[in-house]
Write a structure and sequence with these properties.
The protein has three domains: 2-42 and 97-430, no CATH class; 447-589, Serine Threonine Protein Phosphatase 5, Tetratricopeptide repeat (Alpha Horseshoe); 593-656. Strands 1-2 form a two-stranded antiparallel sheet. By secondary structure, the protein is an all-alpha fold. It is built from 32 helices and two strands. A hairpin with a 2-residue loop joins strand 1 and strand 2.
């Protein structure tokens, strides 16, 4: 009855012209709204992955430079070569890493994915489970276009599109959706007329191709087969030649439940294989799983009710779940997910699209929101999982309009998309420059340590550029005081964060000598280094501390900084980035203990037999002073550098 009313209402204005107009309007709005922020900042992971990655910054004239650049990332086990290839192309075309070129490319991928989503949604609406709606081709196109528009204009995707390095997530989602589209289109034909071995093989080859490209963009692409199982179980239900094939249906359920069974086997028979990977985190596997139960509901709330004041690049103010009742909402979240999963299993035939949306959401989140020792919360993790709910929302809007006859379709669609455009415009406007973004984040997330650090660091950078900016002494003093205040606030929120201590030490040494004498920040760092689980954010902080200690202002404390590094190296002997800091610190010193440095490098090389960095530093240490030792270190370097990514660096040693 509801579907028939929807058909009657929508067909008052039949034709595909209005859908084409809507597509053009959405495309234009995306270009205009995102366009204001294409010159925004490159920051955080953009720096180590792009700006500081010398292997990626090539002119493109030598073929081997392309090979090295494409394999230059250590972000994943496969080096994410597809994503790195696109970054390399950006650099070659422009001649440098331009924020505009990087983010404009991201926007182009976003729009292309929106187009794929339209065709994917259109195919989904023709599956056996949704044919009961009996929508005509125009109605299906309208729903598909509305789903693509909602997804394209949703403000939660701003921190994916405008955060340059998240092109990895974009490309993985792009190839995953392409694979799902191929599967769905093939299955529509097979559901009605079946298929021979040749056609099944052709489909498998296409799926394998898209799957490989997705994985080589970012590891989330490995979820493609599992997402295919979601589509099969909820929307096709084993349909083959116009009938339900029980064997195919059971195969679909087996494929859906197999990953869960494999994880359960690992947990039962080898629990340390998962929990042992959390040695570098300040939380345990159990705490992460409990927290993610709440976080997944938070993500869903942002998708359904996009509160941009609650969203943000930094979400480290969300408290950890230390137990089922700490906080109490952890238990509520777990019970709610149990109810949702039970409903999906029991009522997936009655409410197929609802079951599809929830299962698609959970499976698409499964890699980054379960057992891997990743950070807790990031908006960009919703880029692919939001696809199912975009389709569900579009169908829900059409059915709501049909149920309430007083509502006008154009009014409702314009209202929903208009609200999304306004919210999107506010968020993209914030991303225009680093200062605006930093201020917005700290105002809306005052208890976030990273938001406070980000804003304080932006102020500190302006302080360092005071002469270029033409600031007077009063303006510099105000910047120094405000910057220190936010660093101190970060330290009070999280006393175990290393970055705040480093910046407070620098600021007090440079601008507040009285406070420097009063506060022994280096002593606090030494104590923290004895128990702190080294975080990814600590790498940048340590590098900044080492850089400062090589200046005239930091030179008096260089020995204490070296001692601090030794604390970290003793507890983390496998971390070559710490060795790099020590190597830099000692080689810049005037009276370096070369024998102690050599012993340290040799010890690191022995402890880390697969690390190319360890022997690279040995080669640089010996240089032209001991050619025999240099050649031996380079030989070992080449043995360990199986991908031959360091050939250019080795060539520089010979040139010297």
């Amino acid at each position: 009855m509801v579907a028939s009313r929807a058909i009657a209402f929508i067909t008052r204005r039949p034709g595909s012209g209005s859908i084409f107009v809507l597509a053009c309007v959405v495309l234009l709005v995306c270009l205009l709204v995102y366009g204001v922020a294409l010159n925004g900042p490159l920051f955080f992971d953009d720096v180590p992955n792009l700006l500081d990655n010398d292997l990626l910054q090539i002119d493109g004239k030598a073929l081997d430079d392309w090979r090295v650049a494409v394999l230059s990332s250590d972000a994943g086990p496969f080096h994410r070569p597809v994503a790195m290839l696109t970054f390399t192309m950006n650099h070659v075309v422009v001649g440098a890493f331009s924020a505009f070129s990087l983010k404009a490319t991201n926007l182009a991928i976003h729009l292309l994915l929106g187009a794929l989503l339209y065709f994917f949604a259109l195919a989904l609406l023709q599956t056996p489970a949704l044919r009961a709606h009996r929508l005509g081709i125009y109605q299906c196109r309208l729903v598909a276009m509305l789903a693509a528009s909602i997804w394209l204009l949703h403000p939660i995707h701003v921190s994916t599109v405008l955060y340059a390095v998240q092109r990895m997530a974009q490309l993985s989602a792009l190839f995953t959706v392409a694979g799902l589209l191929v599967y769905t289109r093939y299955r529509l034909r097979w559901a009605d007329s079946g298929a021979g071995p040749g056609e099944v093989l052709a489909a498998s080859i296409w799926l394998a191709l898209f799957g490989v490209f997705a994985v080589l963009s970012k590891e989330n692409g490995a979820l493609l087969p599992w997402l295919i199982a979601v589509v099969e179980v909820t929307l096709f239900r084993g349909a083959w030649r116009g009938e339900e094939d029980g064997r195919l249906l059971r195969l679909g359920w087996f494929a859906l439940l197999l990953p869960l069974l494999l994880v359960a086997i690992v947990v039962i028979f080898s629990p340390d294989a998962l929990s042992g990977r959390f040695g570098g985190r300040e939380f345990t596997l159990e705490e992460r799983l409990l927290t993610q139960a709440r976080v997944l509901w938070q993500y869903l709330a942002w998708l359904l009710v996009p509160n941009i004041l609650d969203m943000g690049f930094f979400q480290d103010d969300i408290p950890l779940s230390r137990g089922m009742l700490s906080p109490f909402t952890t238990l509520l979240a777990l019970v709610a997910w149990a109810v949702v999963l039970g409903a999906c299993l029991l009522w997936h035939k009655r409410y197929p699209l609802l079951a599809f949306a929830f299962l698609f959401y959970l499976v698409a989140h499964s890699m980054e929101s379960t057992v891997l020792p990743l950070e807790m919360v990031f908006e960009h993790r919703n880029y692919l999982p939001s696809v199912g709910f975009a389709v569900l929302a579009a169908v829900g809007i059409i059915r709501c309009v049909a149920r309430f006859k007083r509502l006008r379709l154009r009014t409702v669609v314009s209202g929903v998309l208009g609200i999304l455009v306004v919210l999107l415009a506010v968020r993209t406007n914030v991303w225009r420059d680093e200062m605006t973004l930093a201020r917005f984040e700290v105002v809306n997330h005052p208890q976030s340590p990273r938001a406070n650090f980000f804003y304080a660091n932006v102020l500190f950078k302006r302080l360092e550029q005071a002469q270029e900016l033409g600031l007077d002494e009063d303006e510099m003093r105000a910047l120094a005081v405000t910057s220190r205040d936010y660093f101190a606030r970060m330290h009070s929120i999280n006393p175990r964060d290393f970055a705040a201590l480093v910046m407070l030490y620098q600021l007090d040494t440079l601008y507040f000598p009285g406070l420097a004498a009063k506060n022994d920040w280096l002593g606090a760092m030494e104590e923290l280094a004895k128990t702190r689980r080294l975080q990814a954010s600590d790498r940048t902080a340590l590098r900044a501390l080492v850089g400062f200690s090589t200046t005239s202002s930091g030179e008096p404390d260089r020995a204490r900084v070296a001692k601090l590094l030794n604390y970290f190296i003793e507890r983390n002997p496998q971390r070559m980035d710490l060795l790099a800091d020590k190597f830099r610190l000692l080689t810049d010193a005037e009276n370096v203990d070369r024998e102690a440095l050599l012993a340290s490098l040799q010890h690191a090389a022995q402890l880390n037999p697969d690390s190319r960095q360890a022997v690279a530093y040995l080669a640089q240490y010996h240089g032209t002073d001991d050619l025999a030792s240099t050649y031996e270190a380079i030989r070992e370097w080449l043995r360990r550098d199986r991908l031959r990514r360091e050939i250019a660096v080795i060539r520089e040693i010979f040139d010297k």
